[in-house]
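User: Hi! I'm a student and our assignment asks us to look at how structure tokens line up with a sequence. Could you show me two examples?

Assistant: Happy to help. In each example below, the sequence comes first and the structure tokens follow. Example one:
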Amino acid sequence: MALSGKIIFAALVIAGAVIFAFNVKVERNNQELVIKDSESGRIYGSWHVEDGGEFVIEYVHSVNQSPVRETFLIEENIIRLLNMRFYSFGAGIEAVLEEGQELIRDGDAMLITGFDRSFRELRYIVGTVSDHLLFINDDVYSLRDLCGRNARVTIGLR
């Protein structure tokens, strides 16, 4: 292969790698957070999310009747728990810290950070007495209004 042929071949390989890298980046930035019915798959709503973006689910704990706020990070097509803010311990609330976690007092609330938990999807049963709220892209959505009371929902990425 002549020198000019090798240069053209190398340029095509590099161009292909750049196009591939660009397409991968575009896919990550075009992902959506989707809430759907866990049984039927019916989609209740979807929101554009960037890699590195966050969303929050807030609800009133069914046992201790106080607010819980879970903050999640979108990272490489995975949902990662960043922190949990709550006011009282109860069933399902962290009582023993894992390695790397920290409990911080935040006024009357407690904040646990340092979680090492990732999810492909989250599952909730929307409250019948109290609502579940989704905070995303500077907006707040009532899951009870969106999905209905007692709806079994799955939150994931696509």
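Example two works the same way, sequence first and then tokens:
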Amino acid sequence: MKCPICGCQEFYIKNPDDEFETHGFSVASGGVHSSADSEDAPAPVVQETTETFCDRCSWHGEFRKLKKT
């Protein structure tokens, strides 16, 4: 999967309890894999409707709207 605008495979989501805390993840191998820097705190579960933000460009939207590669 990749970003519909720039093709990046690195994303982040915001913690629903703290809008300033983010959790990075990659979808490069077809699944959701947490970034090394976000393993300290448990990441929220990424579901089809989770608002997802691209790590490279300004795209954000529901996780299910990522392009399948």
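Here is something you could point out in your write-up. The chain is about 0% helix and 35% strand.
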